[in-house]
Each structure stands twice: as C-alpha cells, then as structure tokens.
Design a protein that fits this description.
2 domains, Aspartate Aminotransferase, domain 1, binds pyridoxal-5'-phosphate, alpha/beta, 11 helices, 19% strand, 7-stranded mixed β-sheet
Length: 386
C-alpha cells in the first residue's frame, strides 16, 4: 500500500528531537522555528512531559467517557488556573478542526440559529462546518458548500455592523482567530474583537475564539484574544495543548449550560492525552513560558524589523510573520537547506515563525545571524539599503 499523497514534503526524515532542535536520520542538527506547525509548545521531548506520559502509559492509556476520569477534572482545574478562565467548562476532543466543529455546533444548539460569520483569510480546519468557515475554495468540497457561512472582510467593523443589522436574528456565531495563522499572521484589532463581543451580546450570538494556533501562550497571553480585554463565549484549542500528543478542546462560558448527548467523543479526554496536556500546563507555568514568549518574541521582531529587505514584521509573542520580496522568495528553502533551520510559510512570500515557547535567546540570535547571512547583509551592512 502507498500513502495517499496529499502533502508536498521536504526530503528529510527526523529521527530525534530535543527542546528547539531536531536531528535527521543522518545526524544533521536543525533549529526548529516551525514547531511542527505551532504544535511544539514546551519543547520537543521535554523530560517532564515524557515522564508523565510514560507513567500514565504504565497505568492505563484509555477508557471511554462512560466512566469517571479524574485526570479530566485535574486538567480542567489547571487549565482554568493557567488561562484565567476559572469559571469556564471544558469539553475535550482530539484536534483543532474537531474543536471548532464542536464550538459551532454548540453555539447553534444554544441559540437555535444557523448562520456563522467568518472572515477573509480565515482557517478553521479541514472538516465539515470548520472547512466551510475556512476562506479557501480549494479546501471546500462540494459537500461542504453551505449558505450558512457569511464571509466578511477581516477587521472591518462597518461590514460586521451592517451584517448584524441585516441578519442579526439569524446569526448563531462569529468565529475568529485572534491572530490568523495560515492566513499569514494577521492580528485581529482589539477594537474589532470588542465590537464582535458587543454585537454578539446585542443580537444573542456566540463569540467563538479560534485559539488553535494563536492560543496556549504563544502570543504571550494564554489566549491572544485576551489582548482585547473582552471574553469570548467559547475558546477552541489544540496544537500546543499536548506538545504533539493529539488533544483538542473547547472551553465554554458558564452562561452556556450542558445537555446530555449534544456533544460526545470516543477518544477525547483519554487518560494518556490528559496526562500529556497536564504536563504541558505544568511546564508553561513552572518555566514561565509565556514570559519567555514575550521576551524572545520581542527580540526577534526588533531584529527582523531592522533588516531592510524584510517587510511588515508582525505578530505577538512567538507567533511572528514577515514578508519577503520576490527576489528572496527562496529564503525559506535556503534557511532550511543552507542554515538547517525550519520555518513556516504562508502565501505569497510570507515566512512564519512558530517555535517552541521555550526558545532560547541564543537560538533566536543564531536565526538572526543565519537570515542575515542568507540575505547577504552580514558582509554588506555598510551598504545603504537604497
Ligand atoms: C486557527 C486554526 N484552526 C483550526 C486548525 C485545524 O486544526 P487541526 O489540523 O488540528 O484539525 C488549524 C490548523 O492549522 C488552525 O491553524
């Protein structure tokens, strides 16, 4: 049997990983500023995470949600504490798309409505309604096409207001990333998120904060939406939550009451996944990783902004993007093959940095030197940019 060929891949086999580094099967070392697509939150193979999973594996790995799983309560308690949303309720699942499906569905159960507002360049996952709310026609199969999703321009308050004025009593939910990831690191304006909150309150709609990529401390706050100073009704999470162990979840405002059988899952919240997720939160807290994300992220953005060839350096914490001019469109490949550094990308010509939140300053410095070398400015800093 062959694999179903859905990804363009780099011809590299990673055999080992530690912290912000990975090694291929020939022993070559790479600096990982991609984190397997924003998944590695506390660093690869963190010893506490490995130990917690190993210990749990030797007790019990899985049982279904038909019995009590105290690890889920422990996780809910810890997540409430670290995120600051102590009065929210946790529902566990397995991936980001699944988290968004559950959030959209729960919103619709809650207010009995069908329409969802999503935004230009949004990415919410590959399945069902999550993909219908994703602004990329190539990902949407005919079976996913629906009139229930209304796309509006990102950060356009007037468009949002007039949409609510026109369709307010039909809108079930508004789903938005605090910082668009796949869309190219675009920050939702604080005033825009505040407007979403107030319109949702006015019209009885549910504000869903897709924090799958921008959440879990990556922005320097636990949820990047929190920069706006208003709460969402539902936050969706995955990626960094298990540091590579598959787990996703939604946290739900106390105003939304649970009803048996509306949501459910076989694997979600299994013992092993909870152990991995607890280890992640313990490390985020004990190693003060959100503070590190703020500090190293600022260093990276400052240094990148000082490189004249790189444009529009943006982001928060360790979720960073910048535009590269057409003549440097191979920069990502050069960083990988010449400098042995993994980075992410977005089209067209955008480089994304999504490293572990434990990235060390000296590794960030190495990256800055490497990018300067590839651009050719380590040797020509005296040449004026123009
Ligand atoms: C913002 C956002 N939402 C949802 C998803 C989907 O997550 P998953 O691939 O775990 O289904 C992603 C994945 O990249 C994402 O970036």
């Amino acid at each position: 049997m062959k694999l179903f060929d859905v990804y363009p891949i780099n011809e590299i086999t990673i055999a080992k990983a530690k912290g912000s580094y990975v090694w291929d099967d020939k022993g070559e070392q790479y600096l990982d500023l991609y984190g397997g697509h924003a998944v590695i939150s506390i660093g690869h193979t963190h010893p506490h995470w490995v130990k917690r999973i190993e210990e749990q594996l030797n007790k019990i790995a899985f049982y279904s949600n038909s019995i009590k799983i105290p690890l889920q309560d422990e996780l809910a308690e810890k997540l409430g504490k670290v995120s600051g949303k102590t009065d929210y309720q946790l529902f566990l699942c397995n991936s980001g798309a699944e988290a968004n499906e559950n959030a959209l569905k729960l919103a619709s159960f809650q207010n009995g409505r069908k329409k969802v507002i999503a935004f230009s360049k949004a990415f919410h996952g590959r399945t069902s309604l999550a993909v219908s709310a994703t602004d990329n026609k190539n990902y949407i199969a005919p079976v996913n096409e629906t009139e229930n999703v209304i796309f509006l321009p990102f950060n356009d308050t007037d468009a949002l207001e007039s949409c609510f004025k026109k369709n307010g009593d039909e809108i079930s939910s508004v789903i938005i990333e605090g910082i668009q990831g796949v869309g190219g690191i675009n920050i939702a304006d604080d005033s825009f998120l505040q407007k979403i909150r107030s319109l949702c309150d006015e019209y009885g709609a549910i504000y869903i904060a897709d924090s799958v990529q921008c959440g879990y401390g990556r922005s320097g706050k636990f949820f990047s939406h929190d920069f706006a100073g208003v709460n969402a009704d539902i936050y969706t999470m995955a990626k960094g939550m298990g540091n590579g162990f598959p787990i996703g979840g939604i946290i739900i405002s106390p105003d939304i009451k649970p009803k048996h059988f509306q949501l459910g899952t076989t694997f979600g919240g299994n013992h092993l996944a909870c152990a991995a997720a607890l280890a992640v939160l313990e490390i985020i807290e004990s190693e003060k990783l959100m503070g590190n994300a703020v500090m190293v992220g600022k260093f990276l953005r400052d240094e990148l902004s000082a490189i004249p060839q790189l444009k529009n350096v943006r982001g928060r914490g360790l979720m960073i993007g910048f535009d590269v001019p057409d003549e440097l469109k191979d920069l990502k490949k050069k960083l990988l093959w010449n400098q042995k550094i993994f980075t992410g990308e977005a089209k067209p010509n955008i480089i994304r940095l999504l490293p572990s939140l434990a990235l060390k300053k000296r590794d960030a410095e190495q990256f800055i030197d490497s990018i300067k070398e590839e651009i050719g400015i380590l040797t020509s800093t005296s040449t004026p940019a123009n």
